[in-house]
Amino acid sequence: MKAKKAVKRLTKVEAILSDVIDQYASENGVRKMLDLAKASVVRAKETVGIEGTPKPVKKPPVKAKESKRRISAEGRRKLSLAAKKRWAIARRSRNGAANGQPLSKTA
């Protein structure tokens, strides 16, 4: 269990014991036992001792890098035209049915 969580639980137990001690103020034997229990809870809290410990310093969050530049509409149009030209050249250089021409008889 983490120290912070243990201290929280021990604080709750101490508060509950204080309430119970107040209710049983008239009965001496029960009150002594509850006082001893409360004292042991306080000692346990001191043993965990997170209250006086400073929190570790966290590094500041890293600033997000700027996004990469995006291609403009004109650049996208030029790329599209260049791709179409490459495809046209590839179609012309291929042989046979790939470019829609009938296969020639080889036998």
Q: Topology, pairings included?
A:
Elements: H1 3-23, H2 28-48, H3 73-93
Structural class: mainly alpha
Low confidence ranges: none
**Major sheet description:** none
Rg, rounded, reads: 40 Å
Q: Mean pLDDT across all residues, rounded? A: 81
**C-alpha termini separation:** 85 Å
* Element order: H for helix, E for strand: HHH
Number of helices: 3
- Total beta strands: 0
Anisotropy-based shape? rod-shaped
The amount of beta strand, in percent, is under 5%
Helix fraction bin? 55-70%
Quick summary of this structure?
The protein is mostly helical. It has three helices and no strands.
What does this structure look like?
With 107 residues, the chain is mainly alpha-helical. The protein has a domain of 46 residues. The protein is built from three helices and no strands. The longest helix is centred in the N-terminal third of the chain and has 21 residues. It is rod-shaped, with a radius of gyration of 40 Å. The relative contact order is 0.08. The mean pLDDT is 81.
